[in-house]
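Dear colleague,

Following up on yesterday's call, I've attached the two folding results inline so they're easy to grep. Please treat them as preliminary; we haven't cross-checked anything against experimental data yet. The first protein's sequence and structure tokens come first.
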Amino acid sequence: QVQLVESGGGLVQPGGSLRLSCAASGIIFSINVIEWYRQAPGKQRELVADISAWGTANYADSVKDRFAISRDNAKNTVYLQMNSLDPEDTAVYYCHVKRTNYWGQGTQVTVSS
């Protein structure tokens, strides 16, 4: 059974940082492209970043230069380091295995003073 478990969300002030983690089990993690999505209230889910099996990363324009995605295949974990957070980044963040129906349960990120 495939499981993706996100963690690391929370409440942070504007300009602050958070690091999200996505721990996977039940899947050959190292060969898959892993994606981070987010969904804000009343908005569609959007792709934030993805990382290939070899570590090549891509970012949405809205987070480029602020967010960094990385992976540790030995730990079956993908990370999303989020810096210079803005209230517009408030959303539930999900990890997803590309080209599958495997999603995590999501972790809430709230940026507010």
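Below is the second protein, in the same order (sequence, then structure):
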Amino acid sequence: QLQLVESGGGLVQPGGSLRISCSSSVVTLGNYAIGWFRQAPGKEAEGISCISIYGQNTNYANAVKGRFTISRDNTNHMVYLQMNSLKPEDTAVYYCNAGGRSGFWGQGTQVSVSS
């Protein structure tokens, strides 16, 4: 059972931007650090960003540093990933996670970067 919901993916041209979101009706996101992962076709999943419970600490994979920004709104139980300067190699299914690998996951949202 998938307890998180990712949304906001789509098709965008190289250099474009997207903001994807993570929410849940059953998990109180404000109780967890949240991570974003992605998996491209034929590749292993990779962690790309995470944010602490109150948002004071964030981390980014080198591949997205300077282009992606993670944020959260605990009042409205949302976590966001703002993705700028998108590249074709950012094409993947993006997943949010709460509680680590054995924690809560969503079904993912497809992000496709192509001209």
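For the second protein, one point worth flagging: The chain has a mean pLDDT of 96.

Best wishes,
A.L.
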